[in-house]
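Technical annex, item 7. During the second reporting period the consortium partners agreed on a shared format for inverse folding records so that results from different sites could be compared directly. Each record opens with the tokenized structure and is followed by the designed sequence. A conforming record, contributed by the partner at site C, is shown below for reference.
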């Protein structure tokens, strides 16, 4: 028999409205019939709709990790509110009568099984097949265009450095915006985003540009590193078109490469049967990317690593793309794909099942927390030395004790008496440090804390913003 929880069903929904409407159908008693198969792999029923006839909806769990929801309604949302309502009714212990599986579902199962068999057969045959041929002519044209784009970017950066940030005015920002649009023709989305971020930084500062000079110089450093590393990578690929993408660093993503799961698997960047716990989640508007971003930080209970999930929703298509949400259970993932990266690798999966958090999970989380602040600071500093690396790594730290100075600054200490000063990351719209006084004091003693490190270039100080506090039997999210 299948086990469903509200949070699992919420995660399937395309948006908050679908969750609300799906739950509303159950409250309004809109389901006139509710059935389940004898083996418990299929839920189906009829729901009242706006038309003259009822909608036929079903949820097929023949593959528990990949449930298939179907409905006869005309909604373009998937899954629709009727399919979600069916699941909420089951999770809410509504009465489901046992009934035979409908013939149309049996037929669809048979077709799906044949497709899987064909897919498996192709995979076996493809194991010894010749490698996919590369269209060398098209690849060379693309690389030539990318190199031309990097040349353009190099001239822009050199001009900015020669003139000095103090000479930049509103007219100069408009000129930079023009170069941003030009870069869209050179297959360099990473460079385009980085230059747009620089222009927006100066535009938002208005007349008080001196306040953002430090951040602006850091962004110019990123652009310079991208030009240098990008040229070397593209030149090598131009000479050797069959060269595999670099899976050790993030340069491929900076140059616009969209990693396929098959590529990650070929590079050995996949692990099996991972148990993940989401420790923090937030959604924000990234104007430089022109996308909404759903960002989650997850702890791999087995490996002890902190991974991140990134879900992008472009402005123009945001209303058609499902928004991610917080996840409060253990995600059981059969195949966890890892992107190239540093401390917090981006991860993806094709399907998952879930279960509630147990006492053993909280103990596992505590065991994964880093106990030496000195070693962690060295690790973070090594990453910050790379201009193209994530400047805000997130790690899970053990907290032996916490203290507050006379000026109100918070700090956490490890078992060796080493301290980490806590403070909100600049530019982060959501502050969290000010919430610490509202926590029970015992939560900040012999506990774990998920923190986001950031380096103040002006102060030269390494600070950590608290994201979540994990005790013996609870996770308190300060950012979600």
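Designed sequence (site C submission):
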């Amino acid at each position: 028999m299948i086990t469903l929880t509200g949070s699992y069903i919420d995660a399937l929904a395309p948006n908050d409205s679908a969750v609300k409407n799906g739950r509303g159908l159950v409250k309004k008693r809109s389901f006139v019939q509710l059935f389940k198969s004898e083996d418990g792999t299929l839920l189906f029923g009829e729901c009242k709709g706006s038309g003259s006839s009822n909608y036929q909806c079903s949820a097929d769990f023949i593959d528990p990790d990949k449930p298939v929801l179907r409905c006869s309604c005309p909604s373009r949302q998937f899954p629709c509110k009727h399919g979600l309502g069916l699941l909420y009714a089951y999770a809410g212990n509504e009465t489901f009568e046992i009934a035979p599986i409908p013939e149309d579902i049996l037929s669809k199962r048979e077709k799906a099984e044949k497709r899987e068999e064909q897919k498996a057969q192709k995979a076996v045959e493809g194991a010894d097949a010749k490698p996919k041929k590369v269209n060398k002519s098209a690849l060379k044209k693309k690389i030539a265009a990318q190199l031309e784009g990097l040349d353009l970017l190099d001239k822009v950066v050199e001009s900015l450095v020669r003139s000095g940030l103090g000479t930049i005015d509103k007219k100069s920002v408009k000129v930079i915006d023009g170069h941003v649009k030009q870069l869209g023709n050179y297959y360099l989305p990473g460079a385009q985003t980085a230059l747009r971020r620089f222009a927006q930084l100066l535009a938002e500062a208005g007349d008080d540009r001196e306040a953002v000079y430090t951040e602006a110089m850091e962004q110019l450093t990123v652009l310079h590193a991208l030009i240098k590393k990008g040229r070397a990578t593209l030149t090598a690929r131009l000479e050797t078109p069959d060269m595999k993408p670099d899976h050790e660093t993030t340069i491929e993503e900076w140059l616009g490469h969209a990693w396929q799961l098959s590529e990650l698997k070929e590079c050995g960047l996949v692990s099996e049967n991972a148990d993940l716990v989401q420790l923090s989640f937030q959604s924000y508007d990234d104007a430089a990317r022109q996308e909404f971003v759903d960002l989650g930080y997850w702890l791999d209970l087995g490996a002890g690593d902190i991974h991140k999930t990134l879900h992008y929703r472009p402005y123009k298509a945001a209303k058609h793309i499902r928004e991610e949400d917080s996840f409060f259970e253990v995600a059981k993932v059969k195949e966890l794909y890892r992107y190239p990266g540093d401390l917090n690798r981006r991860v993806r999966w094709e399907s998952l099942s879930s279960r509630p958090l147990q006492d053993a999970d909280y103990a596992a989380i505590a065991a994964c927390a880093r106990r030496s602040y000195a070693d962690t600071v060295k690790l973070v500093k090594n990453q910050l030395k790379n201009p193209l690396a994530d400047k805000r790594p997130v790690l899970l730290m053990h907290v032996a004790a916490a203290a507050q100075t006379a000026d109100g600054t918070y700090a956490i200490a490890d078992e060796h008496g080493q301290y980490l000063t806590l403070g909100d990351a600049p530019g982060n719209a959501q502050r969290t440090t000010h919430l610490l006084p509202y926590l029970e004091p015992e939560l900040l003693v012999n506990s774990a804390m998920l923190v986001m490190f950031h380096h103040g270039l002006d102060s030269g100080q390494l600070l950590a913003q608290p994201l979540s506090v994990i005790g013996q039997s609870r996770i308190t999210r300060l950012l979600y």
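Residues 6-123 form one domain. The chain has four domains: 6-123, 136-251, 261-366, 369-477. All partners now use this format for quarterly exchanges.
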